[in-house]
User: Fold these one by one.
Assistant:
Number 1:
Amino acid sequence: MKRLSTILILIFTMSIGLAYSQNDDMPVAKPVTEGVFIFLGKTIPKGMKYQVERKSRNDRSYENLGTATAPGSRDEMLKRVAEYQKYFKTIDPPKADELDKLWNYIDKYLTTDSMFVSNLPVMHLAAGTAFLDRTAEKNNDYQYRVTLLSAASKQVYQRESNRISALRPVQWPKIEFAEKEFVNGKISITWKTANPADMAHFNVYRSVFGRDDFKKLDGPNIDKGVYMKEDQYYMLCIDPLGNNPAMYEYEIVPVDAYGNEGTRQANMSGSNIEDYYVPPVTSLKAVSDAANHQIILSWSFEGKEYLNGIDIMRSNNFDDGYVRIATIPVSETSYTDIVPETGENYYYYLQILSESRVISPSAKVFVAYTGADMAVDAPSDIDAVPLAGGVNIHWKSGGYQGKGFMVFRRSNPGEEFRQVSHLINGNTNLFSYTDTSRILRGGEVYQYVVRAISNDDKNSASSDTVSVSPGIKVHLTPPVHLTADVDDKSVSLLWDYMNRWDNNLVGYKIWRKNETNQWQLLDNDSFQPAKNFFDDTLTSPGVYTYGVASWDSFGNESEKSVITVTIEGVQPVAPPAAIKAFQSGDAAFLSWGQIIGNISGFKIYRSVAGGNPEAIRTIPKDADSYTDNNVERGKLYFYQISVLDENQNEGPLSENVPVRIK
């Protein structure tokens, strides 16, 4: 079982591309529970070291955080594993055989190409190919710079990570309970999902039934595994409960490769007790109080210890149409029902739920509710309109003078209306109510009715029913797994079908921009939610960025998923390296290394704090310095340099170099 678990966690991990970028040596920064995890590169730094620096979005320069090196011995590696495992408690710790294989690999090889332990963050931190920034503040948009230094402290390479905000949101799977089995003091529970998405591991939480005190199941006696069958992923957990009778609830939590947990879901109950006999319900009664729309149910039965609850069912017909109006604990022996209509017959029965949720129905009882007198007239001219954040319902009283009105809502024509407003009164003929409940969801259709309340607390019949969709913006999921294929000057985009994310999906919108232009909406046949591709033909070389967004039938639009491609042509000349800037008299003096190649000159850019760089001078190709005399004392200036090729094509700007004129 444990071998099966390891193998299939590897399958999950491979399915999300090892959670790293397409270039194995590009640093990747990912927020985790205890800070930010930075993958530094695939080179195991033996006799070398990674230097890690950080800056936030508003910082101009990087600050040094620390270094990472390869472990010098097996004991040092084990010490690192013990240190870092406490920060990744949501992922099971590496087992002894995994640690043996990890040290043998680190000791023998120079890169992480085939290195694997099921706990990926701890594996890389132990090998010196990752860094954990525990000083990072939550919700701060950091970027990291990683420099690989040789034994002589010379730079091998220097690269920047992604900004944290550039990462797409984690996609969690929808998991369902599949089956359970109790054998020899152990309970075996299986869940399933059609698509694991970004799940690399899973955890199981357990609570004594009804206490809502869930704790993670872990330890050497807990077996977990994953397998596939008929295009479904199955997750199995075996809990050795022992022989003490008890009943428990279980929930499963998906975990990504970095140890971030999703939400608990797929609740189920299980125990090491047999399904006990469900006792019969006796003395079931239903009594109308002829006021306040109340019907009081009462009953009794014995042997409640291992029962799971009581469902109360109601209908206006004896034979069919029953709906569950409440589920209550088995300790209750009465329930008061508030019925919606006067002058109706109501039929009730109870469903007793056993420990394994086997349903045992009671006999049915009948009661008629007539009220103390006739109901008042229903409100008229009801209408509903969407508002930002909710719905406004308005109606006329028709001259009725009573206590007031109440508004009722339902989300499905098969459901009963439920009261959503307080008592609404006033002296005008036109009334209104604004529903801004957090239950409302954009893109859903809701139905409303209004009832008048008499001075003796009687409900009128319902008004006409109105339907409306609230004016709440829906946050659609951006298209996931966006890829691009470049062939000469043709670009083909491909992404996942998003129909399963949103039933109201209309299609996709495609944008494009180059290095200098703003986003441009491209013509495409977007009224096809199943068309998850787009082909574009470009006429000029350069770097292009594409954005793809989902949009639905209500006009809601997701954020863009973006990807950048390069159309080969004339390669821009890189900016000069080793730029230096310092004060020379009352001027700023710049110098740089010589550029070898077919160039025609340099452009000098200058900016001040918070400003954009402006070109101040173009100078000849044989220059290697520049003096800026147009400066003021006490000011801080930033300089950047670009190179013009022989066709006057300008390359990218260099890094900012600051100088303060004193």
Number 2:
Amino acid sequence: MKTIHNPDVGEVGVKLLLNRGVRILFAVVFASRILLYFRPVGCVLLLVLPCWTTLFAEDTQVMSADVCIYGSTPGGIAAAVSAAKGNCTVALVEPTDRNGGLLTSGLSNTDFRSFEALTGFFFEFSQRVQADYDRRYGSKSEQAKAAFRGTHGEPSVNLRILESMLAEYPSINVIKENRIQSVQTSEFVRGRRRLVSASFAEPGNKSRMIVAKVFIDATYEGDLMAISGESFHVGRESREQYGESMAGNELGQADGQVQGYNLRLIVTNVDTNKRAIPKPEGYNRSDFLGVLPWFESGKLKRVFAADHSGIFRAHFPYLPNGKADVNDTPHAAVRLSMPDINDAYPNGDDKTRAEIVRQHYYYNTGLLYFLQNDAAVPQAVRDDAGQWALCKDEFTESDGLPPKLYIREARRMVGQHIFAENDTQQVDGDARGMLHTDSIAIGDYVHNCHGTGRTGSRFDGKHSGEFYKQVPPYQIPYGVILPQKCENLLVPVACSASHVGFGALRMEPLWCSLGQAAGWAAVENISNDKPVQDIDVAQLQRRLHLDRSATIYVSDVPPTSPDFGAVQWWGTRGGLHGLASAEQPQPQSLGGQYVAAFPGHFVEPTTILTDEIRSRWNQLLPPGVQTSTELKRLQWIAAVFASFND
């Protein structure tokens, strides 16, 4: 058995690892050998392991679980809930003191385009958020309307709902403030190995070791994936590497630049709930004087705006209770994102990452403090800036500031399938995108990047590497969460994608779907004693459909339909491709980035089957499945699905 240490542990962490020493290693080696070679006996051993290992190392708590998940991001929580539904015990380990990732740290204006793309865990979550507002304020209230079908919950509400979903499963053990330090693995056999345990540093110079059958990395940074020895990429690939038109720098060459980060402030215009933004430590007004010429020239007219007329992008539609989610404004004169200082973050040690985070907090909050308070700022601009302020009732433990930085991109695994620009390409003559019969999730956003570099200063330059490309709804193959080496590791967040491809995957609803799939894949791994690379994808898809998670975008058969599973099964086989031509109108705008259902992505359940479609559909039937004489599309699909399940 091998132990792989985090090279960025630091002196204290190294001492912890050494102090545990031979005693705990003996316990884990013994347990892992039994688990690897005599799994039924090993399962019994793992039940008593926490008791007898305390005899070996007083400073290390050793515990076991079927599934160990690192990162209680929305994707990690979705994975935990799915695994628990599959009767697995789960250790959900979070390196900070707050669950929910960015969904509870300011990103409340959720990134998706149409409601029809929201299924599975995120669909359930948003329904619960909406029900919460309906119950507390009334279904006809302004708050219920602003909740936008539960996708625009206030951070405090999102946190409460996510934690209530976790609390419904006693088999999920949530462990906060534990940071990954090392992993223990088996030896390589035929090019693969298993993770046996993971060790974490706790507050107070203590440590924890978790022995598990399956591990899931749900962090934004991919820290567990990286320390496990899996291949990953940081930065932009060249155009020729994956044949991507938007890849690379201006010459199409690869580099180490990653997408820009920024805070997602939550602000309010309700006077009784306003909290003044604190002056950041080390504040120097001269750092922000360069913004004034933009207002003097009239090129910037506002501080907060939903368009390019301001700096702080107050996302529209607004949140309930007079709040707004603030973001970076694409292609704006003055930006909140700072891509020129991000590149060292993904592989940085704790000190490096902390300094990059500090610089973001300083600039994002210092700029707003300057515009609201400095005498050199024209009074009209100060008045405009003062219309919004931090909230008294959000992030109360961090002075109203979001506790986490918006990490748009860090490491990306090089896995079994590298999701690239071509994976969202529209099929010739068809309304739909490329078919992936091994799909485990769907998305409908755009390939987007808020910039990877900057020329000039904060106030007289511009971002580089920025792109936004609209595409039809797309499927995500199972291989995107599969590593190359570890046969019991899944990576749904820092997943396998190119820089351009990742720009279409890095949305919380989609990460929830990938996390949900990872949780069910873990169940399949444990139930069938197969490497995650070898499980039956069709069975995984069946589990996802039963859990109301889509593997293909369908506009007129929602997750609540009794025929959802049948339609998803048939569409993922290719049955819904070719029903509509490529020439489709743009979806109707719902305001902001949101649109109605994408045209041409339907079943049209009551439409009579034509001979041409019936003939093509018959050719797609699995062996042994009888065709149907039903005349209407949905009836035919339901009939052959029933035959398939018999």
Number 3:
Amino acid sequence: MKYTLTMKKHSLLSFLFFHLFFVGPIGSHAQTSTLDSLENELKTSQQKDTTTINLLNRIALMVYQQDIEKTIQYAEKAKALSDSLNYPKGKAKYIYLQGIVRVVRSDFDQAISAFKQAYEAYQTIDGVSKADMILCFQAIAVASFYKNDYQQAANYARQTIALFEAIGDRSGVANTRNTLAVAYKTMGAYDSSLIEYRKALVLFEQMGNESGVSQCLNNMGILYEENGDHSRALENYMKSLTIGEKRGDRGGIANVSTNIGNVYLKLKNYDEALVFYKKGLKFQEDQQDRRGIARAKANIGSLYIGMNKYDSATSYLQQSLEESQQIGDKRLLAGNYINLADIQLINENYEKSRAYYELALSSAMEIENRREMAFAYLGIAKSYFPQKEYKRALEHAYRCEEITRKSQLKEIQMENDELLSKIHYAMGNYKQAHDRYTSFKLISDSLFNEKNVRKITQLEYQYKYEKELDEAAQKELVLTNQVAIKDRDLAESAKQRLFILIAFLILTIVLLVGFFRQKLSRSQSEKELALVEQKLLRSQMTPHFLFNSLSVLQGIILNKEHEKSIRYLSNFSRLLRLTLENSREKTVTLNNELIAIEKYLEVQNLNADFPLTYRITVEGVPDKAVLKIPPMMIQPFVENAVEHGFGEEEKEKELTIAFRMEKEKLTCTIMDNGKGIDSIQVKAEENKKSLSTTITRERLVLLAKEFKVPTDLNIKDRKSVGEKGTMVMLTLPYKTT
């Protein structure tokens, strides 16, 4: 049996996407005034003095995350007034604001130069506040991070924290700890990064700084996600997005939307991922954020790889590649090379894919980015494996492992373990292959267990539902305010109109509550269906069947029946793969379902003393490759027939599986010539009711609502018609598109 690496089906991690951090709001320290109050103060001020200059600069600094064009406008007004009054502090602040504009426009060298000039200008001014000078250090730390100089970013961040602590500026400390945490994370120091995030989050919460809380939640979400904790990651992202939408923070919404898209991409929910990615791209384009635009396009390219739309993926990735080369973003450059390499690998252009991986590795090494280095080594190993250059593949896989274990990159480690298992198997190192596969399964189970999936579903629903309720509450508040205003102006004779308006408001609220309750009921029904389907998956390929199959295989091997053991293992592995692939889809083609059933029966027959004679027929179905049904509807009853339907010494065992389409109604009849359901149920009552039958009944009830078609399940003993055995009759839901 050949153990090959299939490249046409993309694994969960073989494409690389990019998270968008809040590295830290540049220039944010103790600010108590709101933007509205400052703008109102500016409108009422008639003076052209230093107070007005400081007011203009404060507003310019507060709006750069929402609208960089407004920052430029306010800064230019402040500069003109500073020049006319020869106000040194105003001139220094203008240089500083120019640095911020350069950061947003991804011109990081010019940004750092501007911040250093501003610092030097402040030093020449008597009576300037220490906070203004410290902010220059903080800004250099942020710009250095974006420039991919993470060590310099960490050094400036630590200096800035010490200086802010010396003057008791908690806001400055919190913002800079966030910056330091991002730098630590990018360098692979995850524990240190999480400590800094938590310290920053506590300070932001104590100060009631919603912007800071939102930034920390987003960044902690990235950290959790890269360590495989998807439910906790999504929980942090959703909280951050809610705050961003409440504040109207366009840059924040763009970043968090992109990161939520990344989670959905990992979970292969491509439609939802694309919605969030495009939402993020639109906001980045509104901000003219070249770095954000480039990363958003890279993520959309990654998404199209997962959807097997390689031309679209290549188009977006090439656009992102050109942009990343222009702005000098080495990490993004490495990621784009990796994704382009993956496309070549899928298309079996191994030499070209390896060339891209080597370029990615070179870029990642320049900035010492371990995550991209690990992806590159893994990709190189994958490119050697199909060419049977196993030693080279092994060499690069071990280099990947060294990085993933040191940096706790569990998801990449999982994929690398799977590849190592295949390499060792191909080289005849069966024990190492088994050990690696066991490691792969342990990590996979810990990352994608049922609890995580249920938690993610719950968080998604909670966010959407609470958002709609919040919008309804805001509408109610607006209407209530309108009523209150009208009430003050109404004369005594017009009060009846007010009562009518109030009654209409109450009716609207009642209707809204009914609408949301209906949505909640529908969502609970969908959740119930998901849970029932998960229970079904656990009941398929039962531990009893797996144990028996492996025991049979062990006996064949011990009997030195080499050819038979290879044939048995080949069929068993194909069956297992088919079952897992089908179980992940909401619907599968009838053809795929039939193949899975036939493989199951072949495995059962391989070592049976008295093989089962089976026949599968399909009538009235125009195209088995087009008709789709929910997966795993037939297999439980086939397994019941094989496992329980016949006596141990029964020799002439027969099983018939017949599909029939008549009058747009799809039925399946499963019939055996065994003991009959009545005799089986006598023993079943002594133990427990068939789990698979109960689950299938539950599924049919729920699927009937979803597909809007009638379904049915009827099981009877054939002795009622003078024959021997059991007959199962299913009316199945189906789709043709």
Number 4:
Amino acid sequence: NGQTNAEVLQHELTMLDVMTANRDPLIWARARGGDVKVDDSNVPQPVPVVSNAGGGSKSSNAQKEGRTTYLDAQEAVKHFAIAKGFKIELYADESRFPQLANPVQMQFDPKGRLWVACWPDYPKLEPGKPIRDSLLIFEDDGHGHAKSVKEFAKTPNPLGFEFWNNGVIVTRQSELLHLKDTNGDDKADTSTIMLQGLDTSDTHHGANNLIYGPDGGIYWQSGVFMMHNHEHPWGPSLQTSASAMYRFDPRRFTIAMHAANAPNPHGTSFDSWGYHYATDGTGGRAYQVRPERKGFKMYELLKKEVRPVTAHTIVSSTHFPEAMQGDIFICNVIGFLGIKHYHLTRDAEKGTVWGEPAGDELTVKSPNADGTESEEKSRGFLMSGDKNFRPSCAVFAPDGSLYVSDWHNVIIGHMQHNVRDPNRDHTHGRIYRITALDRPLQKPVAIAGRPVPALLENLKSPVDGIRHRTHLELSGRDSKEVIAETQKWIKQFDPAKKEDAHGLLEALWIHEQQNVRNGALMEQLLKSPELHARNAAQTAQQLWFNAEASTKGGIITAAPEEKIKVTIPAHLPQKDHENYRLGAEIFHREAHCATCHQPSGDGLPNVYPPLKGSPWVTGSDERLTKLALQGLWGKIEVNGTTFDTAKGVPPMTPFAALLNDKELAAVLTYVRNSWGNQAPAVAPETVTHVRAATKNRSTFWTPEELLEAHPLEK
């Protein structure tokens, strides 16, 4: 019905203003030692929202949307197809555990218990309603099914969490909290703000999927359209709008922009040799994060097949076949609903990793709204025909089985539907458990409460999860004891023996985690006969001596931006040179044009159209200005290739609110005259005119609308 988020959310600001005023007397009363009852009967009612799910959205489609009729969780199991040699069963669902709604991340703690971050208040808490977002702890029955659940804490917008120092670090809107249970009742009773200034204006782009790195840093990623302002004890705050991976050191309270990744990155992991991986949600791309110059940079890991990606995990389990160890599983939530499988090959000499598609050919039956069924096929590890299946996380359990969380929602897009669309589901959530047939489960290893020498012996395990949870346990022990015992433990390893390299590497990582530099140990590993260990030591060296070279009083500053070399094309008149330079700078800004269309102007195959040689770029300047201002949604053909938003291609981002008239004219001039393109410059006056003429437009342009007014040039 044309209703916008602005109408709904601006009214909610009014509601919040009234609620704030209602609480002012309470604050004064408490300050005087008294009390006052808050009365919110004067708060305006929220704006009613009409759902556009089910075909009412101009920027959505049946492929993205699920069904408003939800399948029972046990029934949904029947709609899975899984790789040969595996089976999938239901571990927990909303019918038995109503708290399990919209799970977004899972982790197993050192006690072997499954923790789940649930986000039923997504996209954000409604005024006047109680907080439902929470961290849950599940106990199982010993046979692969949940027996009970406890709520550890309420925490709004819990996009990510990780265990550390006898507690858990979790996002709470603009804050990073360290929560602890000090009396053993599995309830958080202490809360310490570790970091502030996390932007949450676009909530699902916020800090997500926290992971404790082998170097002792807490890593997360955050997307575009955000402005973070990280305050810390060491000097001026770190202000950044970069869509990127970030690294926070909880012992030193330092924060860094680790490596750029855009536009909406989700998913971070490490493998047994410390190779680092990241995925991007919107684009679906996967990367290896490697040392580069004075910092770190993301390099293509594999040729992407699907999007959007929510998370990934590295296969490490004695319960899974040996041939799969070290591979990557990638969760996807539109079109292909399931987990893709890629075999990773690690080149020790170059320190690089590359992935190729793996898995089985899978076939599912998808129930349609009219009662019919559609057959879908794809290669991978797991696939569902239930259109509401949205795998949000995958993690290996202490017994070696794989747990998969299901956000489970008819609506997956945030911009295609109103923030308060009544069909956004806030009650469903499932967790599934995958086991290998005819293979023994992994033998559990005692971690919680074990003495330090015993914990160090755990680090000989080939299983990443066992070693990771052991490091988490060590993070809460006395540093002097941990380092002293580690010095004793490494005496059994010979630096000249390749088979001893991993033990020495684990010791180096312990020193990093405890904030104790051991130069001699690093030098041994830099000369190790095991090249993977050398690469890991070089990463530690990069962190200690290069990435932290800009440390001033403890704060790691943001990575320096690479300067763009601008060559003015010979055909461009002198009067347009300044605009061209400005356009080049804007084009290469983080999360602007180059992010999608690439610095080369070639775009990405089947995802982002090329700008090079495109009549959409070099033709009518008014048509180009319109689509740049309000964006573009629909099927277009560029240089013989069709790009169709109905098949998962992202729409063109509207830049009306991001760039002024001069800036937009400059960047359009740049793209019209780069990579061999030659077209007249766009004047700021043209942008001013078009902006005024289209000021009442609140939706994307369609190709048909633009071509009717401005036919494509021959």
